[in-house]
Each structure stands twice: as C-alpha cells, then as structure tokens.
C-alpha cells in the first residue's frame, strides 16, 4: 500500500471511529510504528486530525459529522452483537426511541422480530427500515436534515420528542468517559439526544469499545443520567472496571 493510500485509510478510520491508536494501526496495516507516527503527523499538519499521545483523533467542531457511508461497515460484527443484547431488553408492545447512527441502525435490525412496537426516531435510514416491519407504529421527528448522516435535528425534532414518554431510548455515542460521561462531536445533535433521554424511562447507550476513555466536544449526559452502556467484548479490563454495574458486555457473535 502506498503512503497516500495508507493515509487515506487512516483518515477514514479516524472519521468513522473518532480516534485511532498507533499500535493498532501498525498491526492492521502491516507497517512499523514509526511509519504510522509519520502518517499521523502528516495528517495533523494538513489539519485533518489532531494528534494525541499514542494516536490521533478527529478534529472537533460543530460542523463535523462522519458520513454514514464511512460508519456503516466499521466494526459491523461488534455492532450487531451489541444490538442483539440491546434488543433483548425490549418486550413486545413497548415503545422505543432510536437515535441516529450506525449502531442504533443495527438495534433496529435486531428489533425486527418484536411484535407491536412503537418506534420513534430522527434517523431516516432507520425509519425506512422500520417502515417495512409488519406490525409497528412508526413516528418520525421533523427538523432539519443533516444529509450525510440522514439525521433530523433542530427545534422541531426536540419538540416532537417532548410530546412522548417511551419505555426505552437507545443512543449512540462518539465518546464515553468515566468523568466526562457521554459526549458527541457534533454540537447540533446534542439537544435532540438530551430530549431522547428525557423522553424515555430507561436510556441505553450502545457503542463499540473504541469509543471508551475518549472525550468529544459536547456533553450529552453524565453517566448518572443513563441506565446502561452496552458494548462489545473488545473492551479491556481497565476500562470495564471504570463503569461498574452500568456496563453490559455483548458476547462475541
């Protein structure tokens, strides 16, 4: 792989995951750590990423959003395993709020065999998928479209959620941290994510292990404001210990 192609791959991973570790990149791409460090330094000089100790993270800002096309196939098996555990919490006939995102889309897929669900979402891809369920009540928020991620945001979307009281809310996260809590890169999504939490009796964050120990720009919620976090078994023991009983580990698929 050429340096240009390798840096493109690294940049796409950072966009999709929000953060990359140099050691992991070295192993995955088959080059030594010094080469990866030079690649990350080059991307940082171009203003595409922000260097951190041992890796790099996405450049943060209100307008930054990772295109769905980049997210959807990243850690697909882990997301499916997380979604299976999350969906198992839901009983037939319950009401479910689904946040926008690739992991919450997998939750929608895992819910397809549940009966008589009411599903509320601000994600047009999720809405399109759920609309094909044979026995579902689907409610879609209004709002302004963030086109690359098929997400509806803004005052109309927030107001829509304030009119409902659901059994469950399943939220994605750009970062999960023991003190910073649940954070997100795009500040435009914060009001509707908070509205989702307020609208549900129980809030479950669904996110893969790569998001743990990181902080993004804008706070969605403290850990005390959510019920559980479901992640995959790639999370190391040190991080597991930081979240205690709130953490649910999905077994390998």
From TrEMBL:
Keywords assigned by UniProt, alphabetized: Transcription, Transcription regulation
Domain of life: Bacteria
UniProt GO MF annotations: DNA-binding transcription factor activity
Domain HTH deoR-type: 3-58
A Pfam family the protein falls into: DeoRC
PANTHER family linked to this entry: AGA OPERON TRANSCRIPTIONAL REPRESSOR-RELATED (PTHR30363:SF44), HTH-TYPE TRANSCRIPTIONAL REGULATOR SRLR-RELATED (PTHR30363)
Protein name per Swiss-Prot or TrEMBL: DeoR faimly transcriptional regulator
The species this protein was found in: Rhodococcus pyridinivorans KG-16
């Amino acid at each position: 792989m050429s340096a240009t192609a390798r840096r493109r791959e690294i940049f796409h991973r950072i966009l999709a995951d929000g953060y990359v570790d140099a050691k992991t990149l070295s192993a995955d791409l088959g080059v030594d750590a010094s080469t990866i460090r030079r690649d990350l330094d080059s991307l940082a000089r171009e203003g595409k990423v922000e260097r951190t100790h041992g890796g790099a993270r996405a450049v943060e800002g209100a307008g930054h959003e990772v295109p769905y096309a980049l997210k959807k196939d990243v850690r697909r098996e882990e997301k499916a395993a997380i979604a299976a555990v999350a969906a198992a919490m839901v009983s037939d006939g319950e009401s479910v709020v689904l946040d926008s995102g690739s992991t919450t889309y997998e939750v929608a897929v895992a819910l397809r065999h549940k009966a008589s669900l009411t599903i509320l979402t601000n994600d047009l891809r999720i809405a399109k998928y759920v609309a094909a369920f044979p026995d579902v009540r689907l409610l879609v928020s209004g709002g302004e479209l963030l086109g690359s991620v098929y997400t509806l945001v803004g005052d109309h979307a927030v107001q829509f959620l304030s009119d409902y009281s659901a059994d469950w809310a399943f939220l994605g996260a750009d970062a999960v941290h023991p003190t910073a809590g649940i954070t997100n890169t795009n500040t435009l999504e914060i009001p509707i994510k908070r509205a989702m939490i307020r609208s549900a009796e129980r809030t479950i964050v669904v996110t893969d292990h790569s998001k743990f120990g990181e902080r993004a720009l804008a706070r969605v919620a403290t850990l005390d404001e959510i019920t559980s976090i479901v992640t995959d078994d790639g999370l190391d023991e040190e991080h597991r210990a930081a979240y205690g009983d709130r953490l649910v580990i999905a077994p390998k698929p």
